[in-house]
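Supplementary notes (optional reading)

For those who missed the lab, this is the record we used. Protein: Adenine DNA glycosylase. Length: 310 residues.
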Amino acid sequence: MLQQTRVVQGMPYFFAFTKEFPTIFDLADASEEQVLKLWQGLGYYSRARNLHNTAKYIAYELNGVFPQTYKELLTLKGVGEYTAAAIASFSYNEPVPVVDGNVFRVLSRYFDIDSDIMLPASKKEFAQLAYELMPKDDPATFNQAIMEFGALQCVPKNPNCNICVFNESCLALQKKKVNELPVKIKKTKITNRFFNYFVLEDATGNSVIQKRTTKGIWHNLYEFPLLETNEIKDFDYISNAVKKQMFPIYTIIGIEECSEATVIHKLSHQHLHIQFWKIKIKEEIKDGIEFEKIKTFPFPIVIYNFIEKL
């Protein structure tokens, strides 16, 4: 949960999960929809699916016995070097360094290392340095301390170096390079996408939703019928698409944009420009769903927030 989430955001989800799934067997036996619904709002939903798959693997293949070494932990789906090192050192006292953004920042500043932290070779360099510094009899305290130090004192922008306990020995401070380190050259390319969601309402007040089964964002979450375009489209374009492309089998008796402003939902590598359109139809939708029941399905948070306001 904390791989891409701040602690203050993750805690309520952690307590909800442990209440609903008190053992790894309970999580393994749950449906994917149950897991995704409880995860709703945390983002990066592949983490939830990996957590679920790993629970099933441990429960059914390993008889509920959790792996206890760094190398064994790496075999679990969704567990990379960072997570494996954290579990191995915190839970089993294995001397493996945890290298996250905080550790990169502390070590690069203290030792004046200008290696690009986006390069695999640099990660090995920092991991080796952390391992050399680590007291092998107490790796857990060292790992937690250096991460906490980066999170609270050696912060990304404008740290208060005057009160830092290392201000007399920090090379970056001596060379006035604190705000230049760590070096991170690679920039994530942002893709803009334009989503038009159609909220159908039939003669009985029911609507329709669909599951995103294609790979990519929001896999296996639910959404309203979607038309993706190459830019924000006006009413005339949408009206024509609704009648001829999206719902030619229905008699359209009303089309209305739900809000004047386009919702911009920012993901790590994509900016989604989302418009919601209410479509009233004359006929009754086969297997239509009541709006109150729709809320029980797992949705991306941007769509769920819209449903809450309906």
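If you only remember one thing from this example: The two ends are 29 Å apart (CA to CA).
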